[in-house]
Structures are given as C-alpha cells and as structure tokens.
Design goal:
It comes from Algibacter luteus. The protein has helices spanning 10-21, 35-44, 61-65, 84-87, 103-124, 172-176, 220-226; strands spanning 2-6, 27-32, 49-53, 73-78, 93-98, 130-135, 138-143, 149-153, 156-160, 165-169, 184-188, 191-194, 198-202, 205-208, 211-214. The protein is an alpha/beta fold. The strands form four sheets. Strands 2-1-3-4-5 form a five-stranded parallel sheet, sandwiched between helices.
Length: 229
C-alpha cells in the first residue's frame, strides 16, 4: 500500500517513518509538513493510506480531508484525544492514533486500513459473503458486509440494510455466529452493529447513518476496542 505522511512535527515524522519501514506491505511515497504541500500530490497520485495530523500550520487535518477528491483511507494522528469522536463523522477516517502511540497500536490501525481498502475488491469480483433469509415465505438474499445493524425484540430479529428491513423469528445469539468478526460487534443486549458504518458516537449512543442505537454499559469496551479507541 502506498502511503504519505502529513505531519509538521519532525519527531512524529521520524516515528511514523520508522514504523512504516517495519511493515513490508507499506511504501512511503511522500512526506509533508503542511496540508497545502500535500494537496497537489494527492490530487495527481494514487495513494492508499494517509497519516494525517489534526493540528497543521495552514489548516486543520479534518478540514483538509474535505478538500481531497476521492480521499484514500485516513489514519489521524494527534496528541489530543478529545478529537476522536468527531473525527469518526468522516467516513474516510479508518482509525485515530493518539500520540505517543506504540508499534502494536500502529499495526492495528494498518490492519483496519487494509480491511477498508480490500472491501471494494471483494465486491467487484462478486465474492461477497451472502445469506438467504426466509421472510413471509420469500427468500431474500443479503450481503453480510452491507448489513447496517441487527435488532432483537422479543422473539424477532430485524436485519437492517440501507435498502431493506427484514423481520422474522430468530435470536441475536444465533447471528453472532453468522457474522464476520472483523466487522460486527454487539453493542447492546438487543443490537449488533457493523463497525464500518459507524458515523459517530455521542455518550452512550452510536449513530449508524441516521439510526440511533444505544450502547450497553457491559458492551462499551468491546465496541471501543473494535473501533481502535
């Protein structure tokens, strides 16, 4: 994966370069101290991953993302953890590294970026993992990685995608064994969500597109771990 660094602090640049060099699948092709310097490069070159500081001398990293046409996977880096929740409102951000971060934490962010980058390839080759649901005597084909969330109410399960809501008799427990662990996490006794569609978290509420989903106290840590927080 081709990557660039946009970071104005030299020590932070050195740490990122050192970590990148340890991962054979990463190729550093650019290193910039300011957003304006990187702008022309990103608009002419095909880049897979950008390591982007939030506090830059010319504009904030979050504002800069909005100026990039077809932005690559973004891994934010900053010393301020309070930006973490707001940064996830931008779909292109795959992870958030709070300085100083370890190599293990860096590697976890890279793995999340790989997952995001590889999803279009799987879809283009028509190799999605699918399941058929028998609802009202009709078989509905569902692509698992396109499920937004699954809700349980009494003896019924509702499977929600961007285009469908399908309800039938089943248990949430049975769905935990059907779903890809890399994407899905249970956040409440009644909800399993697809972490790829998380737009933001506010208190004990998680937002999947325009849907508000409660976060159960006993499930919050596993959710934060899934999101790399």
């Amino acid at each position: 994966m081709k990557c660039v660094i946009i970071e104005d602090e030299i020590p932070a640049q050195k740490i990122l370069k050192n970590f990148i060099a340890k991962i054979p699948s990463l190729e550093l092709v650019g290193n910039f101290k300011a957003a304006i310097e990187a702008n022309a490069f990103l608009n002419t070159e095909t880049i897979d991953v950008v390591f982007l500081d939030i506090n830059l001398p010319d504009m904030s990293g979050l504002d800069f993302i909005k100026t990039i046409k077809n932005p690559p996977a973004i891994i934010m880096t900053t010393a301020y953890s309070e930006y973490a929740v707001s940064s996830f409102e931008l779909d292109t951000i795959v992870d958030y590294l709070v300085k100083p971060f370890s190599f293990d934490r860096f590697l976890k962010a890279i793995n999340k970026a790989k997952e995001r980058i590889e999803v279009p390839e799987i879809i283009s080759e028509d190799q999605e993992e699918t399941i058929f649901l028998n609802v009202d005597k009709t078989l509905h084909k569902i692509v698992l990685n396109k499920i937004l969330y699954i809700e349980s109410a009494r003896n019924y399960i509702t499977v929600v995608t961007e285009k469908q809501r399908l309800s039938y008799i089943d248990s949430l427990k049975s769905w935990n064994t059907k779903l890809p662990e890399r994407l899905f996490v249970q956040v409440h006794k009644s909800f399993i969500i697809n972490s790829a569609f998380v737009s933001k978290i506010s208190g004990n509420t998680i937002f999947i597109n325009d849907n508000k989903i409660p976060i159960g106290r006993t499930y919050k840590q596993s959710l934060l771990s899934k999101l790399g927080l």
